[in-house]
Amino acid sequence: MLVIDDEGNKLGEFLTEDAVKLAEERGLDLIEVAPNGRPPVCRIQDYGKLKYERKKRAAQARKNQVQVQVKEVKLRPKTDGHDIAVKVRHARRFLEEGNKVKVTIRFRGRELAHRDIGAQQCQRVAAECKDLSAIESPPRMDGRQMFMIIAPNAKARARAAERAEEAARGELVEEDLPPMDDPTAEE
């Protein structure tokens, strides 16, 4: 087997017994890093330290990972234009945060005969958010509900990552804060 020391220098090929003795002399462990290699590659290193470093790298990778959630916006076929605009604002906010949005149209009673109205509403929401998103799943029926999934595009994901970095640093840009009503202002 090929043996590498703790500083990364190749020591050459050794028999297993000789490599184990060499590692014990140095007060370290013999760790097989490439068992399928020809010849197999082993490293002389402290195994506890190796486990600790791997654990830290995995924790850092999880910390940097962005969790994408699916947020839902529910509508009905008779939902009025202003109410749809409110739901679109919610959907845009979810997309800017980097989350997917599930648009659900719920049908009751005779409304089920007008599935085209539900599809139009889904398309309207998608059209209002098209600068931030792409349609991942077109409108389709599931029992008495029609749903569509829209996912954030690269622009929205970049903005979400930028906002996450700002929040981590404690920097909130004033334009990102919601407007506050001044209770002392007279109308």
Total number of β-strand segments? 8
Number of domains: 2
Whole-angstrom Rg: 29 Å
Tell me the β content. Answer: 25-35%
Large-scale geometry:
elongated
CATH superfamily of the largest domain: Translation initiation factor 3 (IF-3), C-terminal domain
Number of helices: 5
List the quaternary state of the chains.
single chain
For the biggest sheet, the summary is: 4 strands, mixed
- How far apart are the termini? 84 Å
- What spatial order of strands do you see in the largest sheet? 2-1-4-3
Mean pLDDT: 84
- Stated plainly, the CATH topology of the largest domain is called Translation Initiation Factor IF3
Level-1 CATH class name of the largest domain: Alpha Beta
- The helix/strand class is alpha/beta
- Enumerate the spans where pLDDT stays under 50 for 5 or more consecutive residues: none
Structure description:
The chain is an alpha/beta fold and 187 residues long. It folds into two domains: 2-48, Roll (Ubiquitin-like (UB roll)), CATH 3.10.20; 70-169, 2-Layer Sandwich (Translation Initiation Factor IF3), CATH 3.30.110.10. It has helices spanning 16-25, 47-64, 81-96, 115-128, 154-169; strands spanning 2-4, 10-13, 29-34, 41-45, 70-75, 100-106, 133-142, 145-152. The chain has a four-stranded mixed sheet with strand order 2-1-4-3. A four-stranded mixed sheet has the order 5-6-8-7. It is elongated, with a radius of gyration of 29 Å.
Throw out a few tags for this protein:
187 residues, alpha/beta, Translation Initiation Factor IF3, 4-stranded mixed beta sheet, 8 strands, 40% helix
